[in-house]
Design brief:
Blueprint (H helix, E strand, L loop, with lengths): L1 E2 L4 H11 L22 E2 L18 H9 L2 H8 L2 H5 L4 H29 L5 H5 L3 H9 L7 E2 L2 H12 L7 H23 L11 H18 L2 H4 L9 H10 L6 H23 L5 H21 L26 H29 L6 H16 L7 E2 L1 H9 L6 H21 L4 H13 L4 H10 L1 H17 L1 H21 L3 E6 L6 E3 L8 E2 L2 E6 L8 H14 L5 E2 L8 E5 L8 H16 L3 E5 L3 H9 L2 H5 L4 E2 L2 H17 L33 H6 L4
Parallel strand pairs: 7-9, 8-10, 10-11, 11-12
Antiparallel strand pairs: 1-2, 3-4, 5-6, 5-8
Helix pairs in contact: 1-27, 5-14, 5-17, 5-18, 5-19, 7-16, 7-18, 8-15, 9-15, 9-16, 10-19, 10-20, 10-21, 10-22, 13-14, 13-19, 14-19, 15-16, 20-21, 21-22
Pfam family, one: STAS
GO cellular component, one term: plasma membrane
GO molecular function, one term: symporter activity
Length: 694
């Protein structure tokens, strides 16, 4: 290993000539006050020292090693996560809580499932089918113990929007395509879970999700208004056709469904808010949908108002096994399948991880995604359309103190009992009551509080929220998602290609160097520019970094400076501790920058590169190009050495055309020497020895 070093002889000679610091009288080498410069250890880049090339099959070495270490019990827990809580189940403590939570969510799910099926353009029975088999499957394969899955409003809207252009909701093909969509979603979720690709969704900003969800909630609410008004409106995912259709049919308005729907909606909202506000009355929140259904059914059964449309006959019995008969439209449904999978990752997995953290158990997001996929695949074989985790029902499940997946099994039993025994009663449910349940559920998805928060905190994120919500409202769901994701990725790329770069100054009385804009009291030194790059350096941002470095050569003059007066910049110090990666394009660009500096008699110095960055620079030959003595562990060390040269140059006889030439070409003659402990007169040895600040 070689150490960064300067020639002891040259530096002692330099200090004896320069007077070592602020004192004007010369000093002998023995009288200099030394500064301790920590030597930077350079990597060995010889062929013998390089690690052997990694064969292709070693890419999965860690994965295979983990598999080899797994016991039979580990395999069972991985394939069937339910065994993790079955082995530790405390019947005396957990069963009562799981029973109450399962019953509560089941009472809430029955009316919601039928309402969401209507939103998807399907008969209400398919909402119950989607709440039956997937729940049992998820209880076995799912990792979360509190997540409540089944039909949700946003996925139902996506299903309706995707199938509306292919088949009318009254056709049998509409139902077949919805079931096929569940199969495709399940396959995609399993693939992404198995390949551990859930991280891809991290590139979608939370602002995009909030804006998309808020706009979708408004569209869902307007699409259900027809059951309140008593006349049909256009089927669309855009706000303009919906509003135009509502206005155009105003002459067909009927009071009875409007009054009943409004009454039920008010009751639902009051019960929901009271249940949230008071813990002892939280059961009201879960009972609200059932209360609305019972009230509406009673009024319809007793008074028989002719202008209020009812659900009608619902087939009785459990769903039967059937395999999708045709895959002709599978290619058309793939984009919607991918979108629903993205919603599952963002919402379901997000909720599951939050609930797992709150209840203090570990959850793997990819395993959770695989569990959701299996639930949708097996559910599609029993007439279910896509199911995913529900915000509201999961919150109720957790607030009811559900401890394990047994609560989900109990919810599934309640759905099964409803299919077997209660469907004859369901035919009297008013359509406006189901619409009120949907509107009540999606009203909480309009996240105006998030918009206000973003406006106060980050205008850029607010802009992203506004763009996504606006395009979703006026141009449809698909366009809204594409535009939102596009802008989100554009912001990520912009941040990566235009990284934060700071000019550093020294905090008074310390050896700490910080951003001069953040710390106005920090001062710089004449003739020296210290720049910190706060990102990886690669082909996309190296041009921007080079442009900023040229600007800072001029801009640094406006900050408080110290040190001897000089006419120009002589040193540029790059603080590289935040740089986690540098690629070959960036290294070549830095070489060009160094040559440019050299032509203008400016010396480049590099401080504290990490191991990988240092190795890349060393293998490229840049260490030898710049000179090993210009690589430092600390910014302070680099500043002290540069100050020594600046002071020497300032007091040197003007016969020398360049102070850099006085020490040879880049100091190459001293590359292999030990570092001399030298110090300009005003620098504190104690500070340099004790400070480890960057």
């Amino acid at each position: 290993m070689s150490y960064a070093s300067l020639s002891v002889k040259d530096l002692n000679s330099l200090l004896s000539r320069s007077g070592s610091g602020s004192s004007s009288s010369p000093r002998t080498p023995g009288q200099t006050r030394p500064v301790k410069v920590i030597p930077l250890q350079h990597p060995d880049t010889s062929d013998e020292a390089r690690p052997p090339s990694i064969p292709f099959d070693d890419i999965f070495s860690r994965w295979t090693a983990k598999i080899k270490r797994m016991s039979l019990l580990d395999w069972v827990d991985t394939l069937f996560p339910c065994f993790r809580w079955i082995r530790t189940y405390r019947w005396n403590e957990y069963f009562k809580l799981d029973l109450m939570a399962g019953v509560t969510v089941g009472i809430m799910l029955v009316p919601q499932a039928m309402s969401y099926a209507k939103l998807a353009g399907l008969p209400p029975i398919y909402g119950l089918y989607s709440s039956f088999v997937p729940i049992f499957v998820y209880a076995i394969f799912g990792s979360s113990r509190q997540l409540a899955i089944g039909p949700v409003a946003l996925v139902s809207l996506l299903v309706s929007n995707a199938l509306g252009d292919i088949a009318d909701s009254s056709e049998e093909l509409h139902i077949e395509l919805a079931i096929l969509l569940a199969l495709l979603v399940g396959i995609l979720e399993c693939i992404m879970g198995f390949l551990r690709l859930g991280w891809l969704i991290r590139f979608i900003s939370h602002s995009v999700i909030s804006g998309f969800t808020s706009a979708s909630a408004i569209v869902i609410g307007l699409s259900q208004v027809k059951y309140f008004l008593g006349y049909s409106i256009a089927r669309s995912s855009k706000i303009v056709p919906l509003v135009e259709s509502i206005i155009a049919g105003a002459d067909k308005f009927q009071w009875p469904p409007f009054l009943m729907g409004s009454l039920i909606l008010v009751i639902l909202q009051v019960m929901k808010h009271v249940g949230k506000a008071k813990k002892e009355l939280q059961f009201l929140r879960a009972a609200a949908p059932l209360t609305g259904i019972v009230l509406g059914t009673t009024i319809a059964k007793v008074f028989h108002p002719p202008s209020i449309s009812l659900v009608g006959e619902i087939p009785q019995g459990l769903p039967t096994f059937s395999f999708p008969g045709s895959f002709d439209h599978a290619k058309t449904l793939l984009p919607t399948s991918a979108l629903i999978t993205g919603v599952a990752i963002l919402e379901s997995v997000g909720i599951a991880k939050a609930l797992a953290a709150k209840n203090r158990y570990e959850l793997d997001s990819n395993s959770e995604l695989f569990g959701l996929g299996v639930a949708n695949i097996l559910g599609s074989l029993f007439s279910a359309y896509p199911a995913t985790g529900s915000f509201s029902r999961s919150a109720v499940n957790n607030e009811s103190e559900a401890k394990t997946g047994l609560s989900g099994l109990i919810t599934g039993i309640i759905i099964g009992c409803s299919l077997l025994f209660l469907t004859p009663v369901f035919k009297y449910i008013p359509q406006c009551a189901l619409a009120a349940i949907v509107i009540s559920a999606v009203s909480g998805l309009v996240d105006y509080d998030e918009a206000i928060f973003l406006w106060r905190v980050d205008k850029r994120d607010f802009t992203l929220w506004a763009i996504t919500s606006t395009t979703t409202l006026f141009f449809g769901i698909e366009i809204g998602v594409l535009v939102g994701v596009g802008f989100s990725l554009a912001f990520v790329i912009h941040e990566s290609a235009n990284p934060h770069i700071a000019v550093l100054g020294r905090l008074p009385g310390t050896t700490v160097y910080r951003n001069v804009k953040q710390y106005p009291e920090a001062y710089t030194y004449n003739g020296i520019v210290i720049v910190r790059i706060d990102s990886p350096i690669y082909f996309a941002n190296i041009s921007y970094i080079k442009d900023r470095l040229r600007e800072y050569e001029v801009a640094v003059d406006k900050y408080t400076t110290r040190g001897p007066e000089v006419e120009r910049i002589s040193f540029v110090i790059l603080e590289m501790s935040p740089v986690t990666h540098i690629d070959s394009s960036a290294v070549e660009a830095l070489k060009e920058l160094y040559q440019e500096y050299k032509a203008r008699e400016i010396q480049l110095a590099i401080s504290n590169p990490n191991k990988d960055v240092h190795m890349t620079i060393a293998r490229s030959g840049m260490v030898e190009l710049v000179g090993k003595e210009w690589y430092f562990v600390r910014v302070h060390d680099a500043v002290q050495v540069c100050l020594t040269y600046v002071q020497s140059s300032n007091s040197e006889d003007k016969k020398e055309p360049s102070f850099l030439r006085r020490f040879g070409n880049n100091g190459s003659s001293s590359n292999n020497s030990s570092y001399s402990d030298i110090q300009p007169g005003n620098t504190l040895l104690k500070e340099a020895l004790l400070s480890g600040e960057k």
